[in-house]
Design a protein that fits this description.
Blueprint (H helix, E strand, L loop, with lengths): L2 E2 L9 H10 L2 H5 L15 E7 L6 E7 L10 E7 L15 H8 L2 E5 L15 H20 L2 E11 L1 H12 L6 E5 L11 H4 L4 E6 L7 H14 L3 E6 L6 H4 L2 H13 L2 H4 L4
Parallel strand pairs: 4-5, 4-6, 6-7, 7-8, 8-9
Antiparallel strand pairs: 1-2, 2-3, 3-5
Helix pairs in contact: 3-9
Length: about 270
């Protein structure tokens, strides 16, 4: 994988599309559109990057935030963040207070695309797009952990809506990576793409709006009941009157809950270490 640090452009040029066509399988190429490479955040603290996916030869974007106090001599916690369906790959970087919290607490934050804006991160099945979506997240994970000095005991995964479902799925697929998980308005412990036994040891934060008309609160409550049944360490926050999106994306208090939770859990705490 070649990692390019120049700013990602919101429109893929014809030349790039022609080059990709020579390298990528037709079915894989057909699944991606120019809009998949658009970005939403203009904050100078966010690095818009790309890399070349070896499986297809396509150039895939991702966004990275590195706190100003990052010091390679002190491994940093990492927050892998998965956006909702149809959103740009850097969308979560724009949530109210997220970058400020990451800066304050010293978190590196990365937001993969998941191959396309509606890729699903692999939880929907085993189609070509599903596999590429999962591969993209893990390629980006490898790029960031290969470049920066990351505290392996403090690597966290969270997502919103489709990204919440992706969190359950990718945690099930790679349970030994994560120190803690969070799902906002998406996914469920009872879904067929979840390996409950594989992730029962992982601390889990669930945040849900009571008036969510996209992902009903009943689904989150059912998921939390399963966590309780399994004896999982978990925290459930249901926001009275909360909708599907704005109750967290424009609410710095909700965003702060993410960091407060992750600040409390690590692989060291899972092992019972002081």
């Amino acid at each position: 994988m070649r990692n390019n640090r120049h700013p990602a452009r919101p429109i893929v040029t014809l030349a790039v599309l022609v080059a990709c066509a020579a390298l990528a399988p037709a079915d894989a190429l057909a699944q991606r559109e120019a809009r998949d490479d658009e970005y939403a955040v203009n904050d100078p603290r966010v690095q818009h990057r790309t890399y070349v996916m070896e499986e297809t030869g396509e150039t895939i974007p991702y966004a990275l935030f590195v706190p100003s106090g990052y010091d390679p001599a002190r491994p940093a916690p990492l927050l892998v963040s998965l956006h909702g369906a149809g959103r740009q790959y850097d969308w979560l970087m724009n949530y109210a207070g997220l970058l400020d919290q990451a800066e304050h607490h010293g978190y590196v934050v990365v937001t993969p695309l998941g191959y396309t804006r509606r890729g699903g991160y692999g939880y929907r099945g085993d189609s070509e797009q599903d596999r590429r979506a999962e591969q993209d997240v893990m390629h980006v994970f490898d790029l960031v952990t290969g470049e920066l000095v990351i505290d392996e005991s403090r690597i966290y995964l969270w997502g919103h809506s489709m990204g919440g479902a992706g969190t359950y799925y990718l945690a099930s697929r790679y349970p030994d990576i994560w120190a803690g998980l969070a799902a906002v308005a998406g996914g469920s412990m009872t879904a067929d793409y979840v390996d409950a036994d594989a992730i029962r040891h992982l601390p889990f934060l669930v945040i849900q709006g009571s008036e969510d008309r996209v992902v009903p609160a009943a689904r989150a409550r059912e998921s939390v009941a399963k966590m309780r049944e399994l004896g999982m360490q978990h925290l459930y926050i249901e926001v009275p009157g909360g909708d599907h999106s704005l109750f967290i994306s424009r609410n710095p208090e909700m965003v702060e809950h993410l960091f407060s939770f992750f600040n409390l859990v690590s692989k060291r705490t899972q092992a019972g270490a002081p």
